[in-house]
Each structure stands twice: as structure tokens, then as C-alpha cells.
Design a protein that fits this description.
Elements: H1 6-17, E1 25-26, H2 27-33, H3 39-48, E2 58-59, H4 70-79, E3 84-85, E4 88-89, H5 91-94
Parallel strand pairs: 1-2
Antiparallel strand pairs: 3-4
Helix pairs in contact: 2-3
Keywords: DNA damage, Methyltransferase, Transferase
GO biological process, one term: methylation
Organism: Mycolicibacterium aromaticivorans JS19b1 = JCM 16368
Amino acid sequence: MAPITDAQVERVRELVASIPAGRVATYGDIASAAQLSSPRIVGWIMRTDSSDLAWHRVITASGRPAAHLSTRQLELLRAEGVVAHDGRVDLVTTRHRF
């Protein structure tokens, strides 16, 4: 992976912060909006610099939460009115568009 710049980190943080309660975005949505080459870059940024953000609003392209955070992430989403069926969020109704 190419070095990640401070500007890229800040752009991802801005995008995540802009996702309203009750909505979600995928790692790919954020990568596209930030003009990054891969959703994995967003994942890396989220893993290292998102504790002060609504990280739970970022999910995989399948509509599933991060496997290691699934229970907590779904709890936080449910508290905002985002309902998951069989562990999957309906992206058609809850996806945020940048």
C-alpha cells in the first residue's frame, strides 16, 4: 500500500463525520468520495484514527458490519434506527450518498 498522507486521513475523517445518524456508508463509498485507490485504505484509517468518530456507520459493501465488532456495531446502529436482518443492513434504504 502506498504511503497515506495526512490530507487523505483528514478527508476520510471528514466524510465519516458527515454521515448522519440513521445512515451508513461503505468503505468503498468513502474511498470513492475521497478519491482513494482502495477501500482497504479507508479500513486502515478507520482502524488507526476513528475512535472519536461515529465509526459504526461505516460497513462493508455486503451490508455487514466488521466481523470483530459486529455485536457492538449493530447495537449502535440499532440505537439510531438502522435495523439489520440476519446481520446485514439494507443499503438501499440506509446508504448515505456523498
